[in-house]
């Protein structure tokens, strides 16, 4: 495996999570790359269930060359924070967190198994990714949401998307994005 190959890194991360038998969902920049547009990202944003065995996950990460301190995941989850996990040979990192908000729970509960980059991944549902980007709302997030809308328009459940946006008070933001 090449040390700069993002695809190899993604594969190693997902294999590690599955080996540890951890329920997870990938969100963030990687989801945009899969659904929307090519763009730069140096991390994989992952949400895991607080019910999983973190000792096994930490041991599995360590066995696969990741640099992680003992109880790092447990502490991050207890503090409703995230932990950043680096690998010995890759320049990329994992940003790992628990299910802390309604948005996180919906992304986790609605996750879909998708083949992307030649790898089987558990990723955020298209509509949930768009909503997440609208909630966070930075310029990059809005560009990401727009690219997902444009590239996935045939696959988007507009009723679900509009209802979810309405529920979160994002209808105007969504309308503006669709009209732009």
Please provide a written account of the structure.
This protein is an alpha+beta fold. The protein has two domains: 124 residues, Beta Polymerase, domain 2, CATH 3.30.460; 55 residues, no CATH class. Helices cover 50% and strands 18% of the residues. The strands form two sheets. A five-stranded mixed beta sheet has the order 1-2-5-4-3, sandwiched between helices. It has a two-stranded antiparallel sheet with strand order 6-7. The longest helix has 14 residues.
Condensed summary:
With 180 residues, the protein is an alpha+beta fold. It has nine helices and seven strands; from the N terminus they run H-E-H-E-H-E-H-E-E-H-E-E-H-H-H-H. 50% of the residues lie in helices and 18% in strands.
Major sheet attributes: 5 strands, mixed
Could you say which overall geometry the principal axes of the C-alpha atoms support? globular
Number of strands: 7
CATH class of the largest domain: Alpha Beta
Number of helices, where a helix is a run of at least 4 consecutive DSSP H or I residues: 9
Question: Strand percentage, roughly?
Answer: 15-25%
Distance between the amino and carboxyl termini:
41 Å
Major sheet: arrangement of strands: 1-2-5-4-3
| Weakly predicted, low-confidence segments | none
- Number of domains as seen in the coordinates: 2
CATH fold topology of the largest domain:
Beta Polymerase, domain 2
Strand/helix succession? HEHEHEHEEHEEHHHH
Radius of gyration: 16 Å
CATH architecture of the largest domain: 2-Layer Sandwich
Mean pLDDT: 94
């Amino acid at each position: 495996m090449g040390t700069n190959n993002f695809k190899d890194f993604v594969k190693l991360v997902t294999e590690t999570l599955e080996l540890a038998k951890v329920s997870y969902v990938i969100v963030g920049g990687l989801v945009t790359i899969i659904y929307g547009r090519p763009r730069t990202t140096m991390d994989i944003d992952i949400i895991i269930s607080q019910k999983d065995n973190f000792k096994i996950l930490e041991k599995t990460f360590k066995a696969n060359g990741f640099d992680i301190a003992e109880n790092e995941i447990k502490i991050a989850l207890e503090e409703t924070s995230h932990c950043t996990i680096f690998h010995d040979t890759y320049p990329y990192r994992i940003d790992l967190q628990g299910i802390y908000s309604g948005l996180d729970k919906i992304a986790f509960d609605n996750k879909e198994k998708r083949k992307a980059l030649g790898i089987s991944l558990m990723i955020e549902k298209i509509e949930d990714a768009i909503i997440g980007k609208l909630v966070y709302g930075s310029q990059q997030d809005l560009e990401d949401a727009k690219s997902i809308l444009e590239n996935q328009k045939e696959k988007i459940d507009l009723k679900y998307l509009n209802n979810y946006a309405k529920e979160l008070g994002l209808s105007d933001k969504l309308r503006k994005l669709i009209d732009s």
